Every structure is written in C-alpha cells, then in structure tokens.
C-alpha cells in the first residue's frame, strides 16, 4: 500500500516535470485508470484514447494499454514522444494478422474496400482504406454499404460477424479473434441469466455470436458504460475484460455488476476475462519509463502517412 502511494506520488511529479500525460485504457489496473484521470489524462476506449492523444498539448504521452494504442498515438502525433510501460503488451488480433499475409489477402480482392480494426499493426493500417474501433465500426461499415462498397474486413471474425449480421454488408473476413472475449460461453451465460432474471446482459462484440445473441446491449467499452448508466436495471452481467468492472462500479454505485462466465478458472483458460497484455501495465512500469525515457514507441516514418489516412478518416467520421 505504501509502495503504491509512493509510486503514484513519483508519477504525479514526473508527469509534471516531463510535460507528460497519462492515457489509460479501461482494461488496465484501476490504479492506472484513476491516476490518469486525476492527473489530467484520460481513461477511455481506444477511439477516444487516439483522439485525446492527438489533441493534447503534452509533448510526451504515456500510453497505458497495448501496443497498437501506442502506435496509433505515434502515427497521429509523430512529433511527440510515446512511451509504454511494457513494449511486449500486444494483442492476439494484432499478432494474428501479419502484414505480408494480410497484404496478399487484400491483393486477391482488389474490388473490396479494406476496413481494419484498430487492433492491428501500423503496417496493416497502412494497407487499409478505413480504420474502425468497436465504437464506430457499425456506423462506418453501414455507411460504406449504403454507398455500394463490398468490404474486406480484418482481423476480428466475431466483431466482423456481428457487423455483417447487423448491416447485411457484403464482408469477406479475416479469421482473427481476441483471446479474452473468445472465452465467454453461451451455455454457462444462459444458466447465469436464469439465476439473475432481472439482470441486463452487456456484451462486447468481440465475443462469439452465441454470446452476443444473449445480450440486452452489444457495444464497445464506452457503449457498455453508457448502457449500464442508462438501462433501467439494478443488476448487470458483463461479457468483456473484467478491467471494466472498476469504472462500471465507480460510475454506478447501487448497481451490481457480475462477470459473465468464461471457460474455466485461471488454471484452465488462457485469459479468464482479463487480457494478459493489458495486465503488463503497472505503476512501476509507468514510473520507470517516465524516469528513464525507455520503451519509446517508434513507427517506420515511411509508414506513417499511409497509416494515418485511414485513422484520419475514422476520426473525421466520428467527430
Ligand atoms: P475498445 O475499442 O472498445 O476500447 O476495445 C479495445 C479492445 O482491445 C477490446 O478488447
Ligand atoms: Fe486484444 Fe483482446 Fe487484449 Fe483487447 S482484450 S487488447 S482485443 S487481446
């Protein structure tokens, strides 16, 4: 406890000294979420993290999240220094979509508009026409469909499947998945719903279709927060990374949040509703990178203009 308090003090001081701001994702440890807000940074979803980092005056951004979030910040602000507590904090969607294979897939389908999820490398972004996050994917694909586009979608098959079902768009799909959301189980979720008949079910669309089918609200991390705030219920079952529980409980005192069931416990499942890469972020890591300047994110300068285009399109669409 004392050590945590000392680390927080150190980070507060270093953020000021280095003209830096802390940007945290909803899935990281509550300490990093609270500290980001308290020091003038932000805790948010990947879309708002990108926008905030681009618009903030600080010269250094400390991105507490996973690698693609740091890279997106660098692409949007190449002149800024982007630091991350752990450079190995990756994402199964990013790792499962290597650029050479992806480019070959795109080359086979030149008639399709390439829409990629933010959870990808800078090189994959540079090969795309549009970037989306889970909070704007539905609207963007729907608008493209209305203009007659056929879509090549990557990398998350569950999010892609959800959008296809909702919009009816013609989507050719890369077969990636998130190791956290892929673990949610419909059969066990149904049993839990029966035990809590008044509860509303909130599901992130990276979850399998059978789980999404049981949801009262489907959406990104920010959409889940919004649903919890506005829906008329006292109990909620939540199928997303359990890092979200902190904000959900903080913003909704008096409401109860229950984790949706995964395949097993920590001994038997790979992720158990908490992203192992998000978990690499720590107070000690943030203090260390601020102090030393280590763990800077670099993106190939040649890629930046091409990777920026699809991100700018998304930010303009959602402005
Ligand atoms: P959001 O875009 O909703 O923040 O989600 C990012 C992510 O990695 C979900 O697993
Ligand atoms: Fe990637 Fe899933 Fe972790 Fe999000 S929760 S960063 S999609 S592995």
From TrEMBL:
Keyword annotations: 4Fe-4S, Cytoplasm, Iron, Iron-sulfur, Metal-binding, Pyridine nucleotide biosynthesis, Transferase
The reaction(s) this protein catalyses: iminosuccinate + dihydroxyacetone phosphate = quinolinate + phosphate + 2 H2O + H(+)
Recorded metabolic or biological pathway in which this protein acts: Cofactor biosynthesis; NAD(+) biosynthesis; quinolinate from iminoaspartate: step 1/1
MF (Gene Ontology): 4 iron, 4 sulfur cluster binding; metal ion binding; quinolinate synthetase A activity
CC cofactor: [4Fe-4S] cluster
Subcellular location: Cytoplasm
A GO BP annotation: 'de novo' NAD+ biosynthetic process from L-aspartate
Database matches in NCBIfam families: nadA, PRK09375.1-1, PRK09375.1-2
Alphabetized PANTHER family for the sequence: QUINOLINATE SYNTHASE, CHLOROPLASTIC, QUINOLINATE SYNTHETASE A
Name of protein: Quinolinate synthase
Taxon lineage: Bacteria, Pseudomonadati, Pseudomonadota, Betaproteobacteria, Burkholderiales
């Amino acid at each position: 406890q004392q050590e945590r308090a000392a680390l927080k003090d150190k980070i507060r001081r270093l953020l000021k000294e280095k003209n830096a701001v802390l940007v945290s994702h909803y899935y990281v440890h509550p300490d990093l979420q609270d500290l980001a807000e308290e020091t003038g940074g932000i805790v948010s979803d990947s879309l708002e993290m990108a926008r905030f980092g681009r618009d903030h005056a600080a010269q250094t951004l400390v991105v507490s999240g996973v690698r693609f979030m740091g890279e997106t910040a660098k692409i949007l602000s190449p002149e800024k220094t982007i630091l991350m507590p752990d450079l190995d904090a990756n994402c199964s969607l990013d790792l499962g979509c290597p650029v050479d294979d992806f480019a070959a897939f795109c080359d086979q389908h030149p008639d399709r508009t390439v829409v990629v999820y933010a959870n990808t490398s800078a090189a994959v972004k540079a090969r795309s026409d549009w970037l989306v996050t889970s909070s704007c994917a539905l609207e963007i694909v729907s608008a493209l469909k209305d203009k007659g586009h056929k879509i090549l979608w990557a990398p998350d098959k569950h999010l892609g499947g959800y959008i296809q079902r909702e919009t009816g768009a013609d989507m050719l799909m890369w077969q990636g998945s998130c190791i956290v959301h892929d673990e949610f189980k419909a059969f066990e979720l149904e049993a839990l719903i029966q035990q809590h008949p008044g509860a509303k079910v909130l599901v992130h669309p990276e979850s399998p279709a059978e789980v999404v089918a049981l949801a009262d609200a489907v959406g990104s991390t920010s959409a889940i927060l919004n649903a919890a705030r506005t829906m008329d219920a006292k109990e909620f079952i939540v199928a997303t990374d359990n890092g979200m529980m902190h904000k959900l409980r903080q913003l909704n005192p008096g409401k109860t949040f229950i984790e949706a069931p995964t395949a097993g416990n920590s001994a038997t499942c790979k992720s158990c509703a908490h992203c192992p890469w998000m978990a690499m972020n720590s107070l000690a890591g943030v203090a260390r990178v601020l102090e030393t300047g280590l763990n800077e994110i670099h993106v190939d300068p040649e890629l930046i203009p091409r990777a920026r285009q699809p991100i700018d399109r998304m930010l303009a669409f959602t402005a």
